[in-house]
Amino acid sequence: MRINTPVTDREVELSVDTMIVSKTDTKGRITYINRDFIDISGFTEAELMGQPHNIVRHPDMPPEAFDDLWKCLKAGRPWIGMVKNRCKNGDYYCA
Ligand SMILES: Cc1cc2nc3c(=O)[nH]c(=O)nc-3n(C[C@H](O)[C@H](O)[C@H](O)COP(=O)(O)O)c2cc1C
Fold first, then answer.
1. Is residue 12 part of a domain?
2. Is the Cβ atom of 53 under 6 angstroms away from ligand 1?
3. Domains of the chain: total
4. Positions of the chain with pLDDT lower than 70, given as ranges
5. Are strands 92-94 and 30-33 parallel, antiparallel or unpaired?
6. Ligand 1 centre from 36 Cα, in Å?
7. Can you give the residue range of the structural domain that contains 52?
8. Which residues pair with 86 in a beta bridge?
């Protein structure tokens, strides 16, 4: 399990028109992120592209959530759930 630090207690509030989108390959490496993803996460596009998606993993997220995500995706089913992600500066957002 990857532990990204530091973390702050500050939440980045997402406005109603925010749409965070990312795509990965079958190993979970980022192949696409949209403008909102870049702006909210605080990473640059170059820092994100090709990196494992756990680059935004927040330590508060239980490993079981991702076990379930991968089980669903590997079985060809979609996964829907709330994820708390860490921004580059340690803040967090929920999407
Ligand atoms: C399409 C896709 C999107 C993902 N989105 C996230 C995400 O937003 N945040 C996150 O922490 N992990 C996300 N993951 C899961 C990561 O690949 C990884 O399993 C998770 O961060 C736990 O990593 P760790 O076990 O190395 O800590 C995503 C995976 C896929 C395939």
1. no
2. yes
3. 1
4. none
5. unpaired
6. 18
7. 22-94
8. 92
What does the pLDDT read at residue 36?
A: 98
Tell me, rounded to whole angstroms, the distance of Cα 19 from its chain centroid: 13
Note the pTM of the prediction, 2 decimals: 0.97
Tokens 């959530």 appear where?
A: 65
Q: Is the CB of 51 under 6 A from ligand 1?
A: no
Tokens matching residue 12: 């980045």
- In Å, what is the CA distance from 34 to each residue of 3, 62, 63, 74? 24, 26, 26, 24
Residue 50, domain member (yes or no): yes
Q: Which residues pair with 57 in a beta bridge?
A: 85
What token pair was written down for 93?
A: 């957002």
pLDDT, tens digit (0-9, with 9 covering 90-100), for 64-76 = 999 999 999 999 9
* Structural domain contains residue 89: yes
Residue with tokens 């929920």, as numbered in its chain: 94
List beta partners, residue 52: 29
Q: Which amino acid is at 87?
A: C
Question: Does residue 9 sit within a domain?
Answer: no
What's the CATH number where 58 sits?
3.30.450.20
